Amino acid sequence: MVIKVDAVVVKEYVVGESDKYITLFTREYGIIQVGAPRAKKFDKGLASGTELFVYGEFVLTQYKHTYKLISVEPRYTFHHLRENLVILSYASYIAEFVSEVATESSGNSELLTLMLYALHSLNKSSEESAERIRRTFEMRALVVLGFTPELTRCVSCGMSVEGDEHATYTFLVEEGGLCCKKCRSMSALITLSYTTWYVLNYIRLAPYKTLFNFEIKPYVLQEMARLCDEMVAYYIEKSFKTLEFIKSLGILS
């Protein structure tokens, strides 16, 4: 059976001198493994169309759970991602994150859309913006995956939490949200400033077209980073090799 899928390449590897295998994240089928015989050596179109980050329409043959590439029509190649090692590393992390959390036989169109917007932002960004884009992606990905942080009510008593520029907010990762002063304990708390609380609400609700279009102060990024690290560790429970490489570059502490 011949099928067409809307997909992005999240992994690629060469077998022998000419064959390639790629992992596609598709809107229709989630994660699938695809063989591309002779793509690397004899077919320049297939070789470039099966590189990491390429987004397009892939024509495949399907037999049970086996897929083989016939052709690809790239829509975006994100070629600028490869011009800077730092940007490439962050883009590779996003691809690895998606390949780890996405499932086989179950599409997730919203997660694919989020990934594409994140790659677009990295494709035109500077090194200084890469960490902000990463943290924005992580937080919105948690929302897409069903781990939306509760930012408007206390997770213990349900009392409404209002915006107050003089307030300090406390977040319980295990409960997935804020807790009020009456309910909070001294254990497992993350402290957030009003500005960080505001930014998190923005990330939770913003349209994808404007999701990555903001700047924040370093202390806000630090608070976001700690929250994202704790939430990803607790809810995703995956380790990512690309983060270790980014740390080796001296980008992360």
Automatic annotation (TrEMBL):
Domain DNA replication/recombination mediator RecO N-terminal: 1-76
Stored InterPro entries: ARFGAP/RecO (IPR037278), DNA_rep/recomb_RecO_N (IPR022572), NA-bd_OB-fold (IPR012340), RecO (IPR003717), RecO_C (IPR042242)
Pfam families according to UniProt: RecO_C, RecO_N
Signal peptide residues on this chain, from the entry's feature table: none
Keywords recorded for this protein, A-Z: DNA damage, DNA recombination, DNA repair
DNA repair among keywords: yes
Stated family: Belongs to the RecO family.
PANTHER family membership: DNA REPAIR PROTEIN RECO
Function, as annotated: Involved in DNA repair and RecF pathway recombination.
Stated name of the protein: DNA repair protein RecO
Originating organism: Zhenhengia yiwuensis
Gene name as annotated: recO
